[in-house]
Amino acid sequence: MEEKKNPILRTDQLQTFYVLDMQGTQKIIKAVNDVNLNIYENEIYGIAGESGCGKTTLLKALFADIVPPLRLIGGKVYYRVNGKDEIEATALSAEEKRKLRLEFISNVPQGCMSVLNPVLKVKETYKDFIASHVREQSRREEIFDRAHKQILEFGLPKNVLDVYPHQLSGGMRQRVTVALAALMKPRIMIGDEPTTALDVVVQRGVIQMLKEIQKKLKNTIVIVSHDMGVQANIADRIGIMYAGKIVEESTAERIFDRPLHPYTQFLIHSLPKLGDKTIRGSVPGSPPSLADLPDGCPFHPRCPKVMEICRRQMPDFSYPDENHKVACWLMEEGKHGQAA
Ligand code: SF4
Q: What pairs with residue 48 in β-bridges?
């Protein structure tokens, strides 16, 4: 992390909800609710939390991919392109987004088979991919040539472009997908659970590849993973998400060494430790429905440290230090009463 003043990717009071029409009745799912993020150049930012907390929807919004039934209810997403002025990503036209995708921001999707066409050789997928983003023929050829070099740089077999996806292992397919997302040297890469469904050894290879890409391009990677073990291995900073909100954010070191939000503490303490055979506890209860959130702190029905005020009012962020923010009334304990 070098530049801390000007985020390359920023959200301001972002609210993106799913608005569903259920036979004449509107159902609103508050997937991302008042999220303020500052993500910088040359860092890997992890977004962690249980399934259904809004992580994937937040990633869609960061990619400016807000299509019905998802709606931008409030707030904005900003990109700082070329290190200069910010542009409002949430106000870009489809054509403006097309131009920015790949070279400024690219997406590493959750499943590699959604990218690799099973009936085409990998190189055809590469060519289609390049053609959909680059208009000039000469430039397309130049980028395809670059793909060959990049495949070797990333340590992938040199014939990987000449085979069909089914001829590759699951881990190799995922690495090809990551390589494709990095092809145009994007300033931001975002990945939604890019290691899900891979065994730990393969997972490690994909994580290592993402880290190498980030180091080489000195770009920004935003990675969603519910797996705190993955976050520990890859992230420089982590935002913990619960019920559509970021409830704690700090450096990965600080989050693992000194988690302050009770929810983060459960996530960390549920991780296995080498040599420790005691049964690890999980977070009690279930996450709330994003269509029917409790009043106050959304974690209060599950929180063993709940106080009276927690049931009524959502806490603002407290800043135990400049790199750490926590939304929990415990940070102000003593002012509002005792734990119940
Ligand atoms: Fe628990 Fe209250 Fe903190 Fe929420 S605000 S995490 S309910 S102590």
A: 240
Q: How many helices (H) and strands (E) does the chain have?
A: 9, 12
Residue 157 has φ and ψ, to the nearest 5°, of -60, 140
Cα 303 to ligand 1 centre (Å): 6
Instruction: Note the pLDDT tens digit of each residue in 166-201.
Output: 999 888 888 999 999 999 899 999 999 888 777 888
Indicate if ligand 1 lies below 6 Å from the C-beta of 126. no
Is the minimum distance from the CB of 306 to ligand 1 under 6 angstroms? yes
Backbone angles phi, psi at 229, to 5 degrees: -65, -40
pLDDT tens digits along 298-320 = 999 999 999 999 999 999 999 99
| Whole-number Å distance between alpha carbons of 47 and 249 | 9
- Among candidate residues 327, 251, 329, the one with its CA nearest the CA of residue 35: 327
Tokens standing for 62? 């960061």
* Residue pair 305/339 in contact by the 8 Å Cβ criterion: yes
Pair 196, 112: CB distance under 8 Å: no
